[in-house]
Amino acid sequence: MRPSQPITVNVFVLSPDTRSERRFDLGLTVGQLKNKLELITGIPVQNQEISVLPSEDAAQPLCILADDEKQLGFYGVHDWQVLKVNDLNPATSFTGQLSDTSQVEKFELSETEYAQRQDTVLAYKQRHKIGRFAEQPADKPEETLHVDIPVGARCEVESTEEDFRKRGTVRYVGPTEFAKGIWVGIEYDEPIGKNDGSVKGKRYFECRPNFGVFVKPERVKVGDYPVEEINFDDEEM
């Protein structure tokens, strides 16, 4: 017993403005098919040229459904082939106009007009305080750090150089204009500092040039630190 032939076919319908998957009866005549395709593609029956392609990117059609009296099955259309519908007279239809936005008048608002409207995303964010309109937390006052380093005390400053002690006298403890927090101003015993007790034109204490420095309190050790002379290499002058 011979297997029965399929009576319907699943195909892709492709036109300048549409792409869809459809099922058609192979007993449809080409003329009946065109009536159905007009509803799908918007191309009038008299303007339609239907090509059968093996795939959407195929360069050449397998055939043209040229005889309106022939049935779809006559042309050997198979599942998942492409029925490409061309418009032979696009001037009398809307072909291509559905996807052409070049002639569409654009609705534009100036920034001022947009800001005055109450039905916009901007207005919604303003009402609900979202994003850049959210309430900003008030700056917390900087906590006052208690530093137990008396002015006039002898001290030693932490150094990254082994066996090199930076000793001096505490001359200032408190806030500064050049940076946040509490700083300790020290007059070194030797000219290994960075200033004369002033930074950016603001004076905090008096000392000779290159004898003054400002460091954070955690780098300072207060104690009985006598003055030490720095011994330079005899070959250096």
From TrEMBL:
Stretches assigned to the CAP-Gly domain: 174-216
Pfam families in alphabetical order: CAP_GLY, Ubiquitin_2
GO CC aspect terms: cell cortex; cytosol; microtubule plus-end; nucleus
InterPro entries: CAP-Gly_dom_sf, CAP-Gly_domain, TBCB_Ubl, Ubiquitin-like_dom, Ubiquitin-like_domsf
GO biological process: cytoplasmic microtubule organization; post-chaperonin tubulin folding pathway; tubulin complex assembly
Superkingdom, natural source: Eukaryota
One GO MF term attached to the UniProt entry: microtubule plus-end binding
PROSITE patterns: CAP_GLY_1, CAP_GLY_2
Main location: cytoplasm
Record carries keyword Cytoplasm: yes
Subcellular location: Cytoplasm
Protein's name in the database: CAP-Gly domain-containing protein
Organism: Trametes coccinea (strain BRFM310) (Pycnoporus coccineus)
